[in-house]
Amino acid sequence: MTLLATTICIGLPTRNRPDLLRRALSSISSQTRAPDEVLIGDNSDNSETLDVYLEWRDILPNLRYFRRERDVGPTSNFLQLLQDSTATHFMWLADDDVMQPRLLEAAYDFLGLYPNVKYLCWGFSVHNYVTGSTEHPSALPPISHERGFYANACLYLTQPISSLFYGLYERRALMNSSLSLWHQKNVSFDWMDVACIMSTLLCCRSHLIPERLVVFGIDQPTRSIKCAGGLSAKRYDPLPWLWHGVVLILTASRLTFLERLKLMPKFLYAWRNTTSFAINHS
């Protein structure tokens, strides 16, 4: 079978944050290797995002703009960009995040060597633009294409970092993923991004580049708690993530029956640690 040449699309879902969108687009224009597609999904209730697109369309010739006629919510806006893309590989860039200049070069180079990898993630930092402070994760799970699906899932569950959701996916795999299926069934739950990563590791050849290639931004004094719908929340509901995680493991066709049994307590331990704040304050 002949493999298609790798093409990469960056999907930018946004809502009412034109200044942050400009910052994200600037980081794309600074890449040492340009993406094949850049798509803006505008879920705003004004025309300011369109103005940003008009400013940038000549700077990024492969930039396209999609206006949502009504508020479709964050998940629909994210996944519609996936449908709009024609590339072989796809990644989201939230409008408050920026890419380091060599991110795409590193991705193209890696996939040139290992084209069967369907999910590629990378190291990151978190920068608070209000306080000026920058954080780095204390450790990253050493997910590798050389390991099996069970081993990578175990490594991730030692430190289930939700930010790894913003990696690069083979587009067809993402269109057939648990995330797409949940959306089709109108399912949304807290820690859905963590569940999506675990699901991806259970069914896709995956790899993590430890180099910090993206900066996740915070544009307020402290991090806000956001529920599954993307809105600010006072508390999380941990039980749906428990249920969906168990189902993902029990139905993981890439694992043997014994591996599913061995993975279950690791998941339950990770679920408890991840959701302990919500459980203790419910």
Index terms:
single chain, 282 residues, alpha/beta, nine-stranded mixed β-sheet, 10 helices, 40% helix, 19% strand
Describe what this molecule looks like in 3D.
The protein has 282 residues and is of the alpha/beta class. It is 40% helix and 19% strand. It is built from 10 helices and 9 strands. It has helices at 18-29, 48-56, 73-84, 103-113, 149-157, 171-175, 178-184, 192-203, 239-250, 257-280, and strands at residues 8-14, 37-42, 63-67, 89-92, 97-99, 119-128, 134-135, 168-170, 206-218. Strands 1, 2, 3, 4, 5, 6, 7, 8 and 9 form a 9-stranded mixed β-sheet that branches. The radius of gyration is 18 Å and the shape is globular.
The helix tally amounts to 10
Give the SSE order as H and E letters: EHEHEHEEHEEHEHHHEHH
The helix fraction, in percent, is: 40-55%
Looking at the structure, what is the overall shape? globular
Global mean pLDDT = 91
In the predicted model, the low-confidence regions spanning at least 5 consecutive residues are none
Largest sheet: 9 strands, mixed
Q: Total number of β-strand segments?
A: 9
Computed over alpha carbons, the radius of gyration is 18 Å
